[in-house]
Automatic annotation (TrEMBL):
One of the record's GO molecular function terms: bis(5'-nucleosyl)-tetraphosphatase (asymmetrical) activity
Family, as annotated: Belongs to the Nudix hydrolase family.
Source organism per UniProt: Sporomusa ovata
Coiled coil (residue ranges): none
Domain Nudix hydrolase: residue ranges: 1-151
Keyword Hydrolase: yes
Keyword Protease: no
SUPFAM superfamilies: Nudix
Name of protein: MutT-like protein
Keywords from the named record: Hydrolase
One of the protein's GO biological processes: ATP biosynthetic process
Organism classification: Bacteria, Bacillati, Bacillota, Negativicutes, Selenomonadales
Length: 172
């Protein structure tokens, strides 16, 4: 089951009443000049023995270097993702100075191709906050549903009451 499941966290903030979402841009030479439809929610596959929430937290920290506060979080459900995976996403409110360097894990890749030289590239090369309209343009198509769900949950009802009704998620 674990190899077909991905989990992630969507950090959001209200900036002068405007909802903004933190999205991540993939690192490596294949994504260097790609923008619209290449950004995404920090996420990844589960490791053996992990719960879905534990995997979401671990992946978020590995990819962004940000330690999330999930005291109040919103489960945005699941949806089909790339590579026949099921994505599970939670949203939480927070903030981050995106001018700080991204503290992402790295992956090895032979580059240039067939050169015999293996280099390390960051899994995520940048993170940034986007308005809902911008995020809808930037994010991978498979993840659009999570933006829509968050927008409905936060902006479709009284924001403060929504947070107070959320169950606390235990995480280690």
């Amino acid at each position: 089951m674990h190899h077909n499941v991905s989990a992630g966290l969507l950090l959001y903030r209200l900036n002068t009443g405007r909802l903004e979402l933190l999205l991540a841009h993939p690192g490596g030479p294949y994504f260097e000049n790609k923008d619209d439809r290449y950004w995404g929610i920090p996420k990844g596959h589960l490791e053996i023995g992990e719960t879905i929430v534990e995997g979401a937290v671990r992946e978020f920290i590995e990819e962004t270097g940000i330690n999330p506060d999930l005291t109040y979080s919103i489960y945005l459900g699941s949806a089909p993702g790339k590579y026949k995976r099921i994505l599970h996403i939670w949203a939480f409110e927070g903030n981050w100075d995106v001018s700080k360097p991204v503290q992402s894990n790295a992956f090895p890749l032979e580059w240039p191709p067939q050169s015999g030289q293996v280099r390390l590239f960051p899994e995520i090369d940048k993170i940034d906050f986007f308005s809902i309209a911008e995020a809808n343009r930037k994010i991978e198509r498979e993840q659009l549903v999570f933006i829509n769900r968050l927008e409905k949950r936060l902006l479709g009802s009284n924001y403060q009451n929504q947070l107070e009704l959320l169950p606390k998620i235990a995480h280690g």
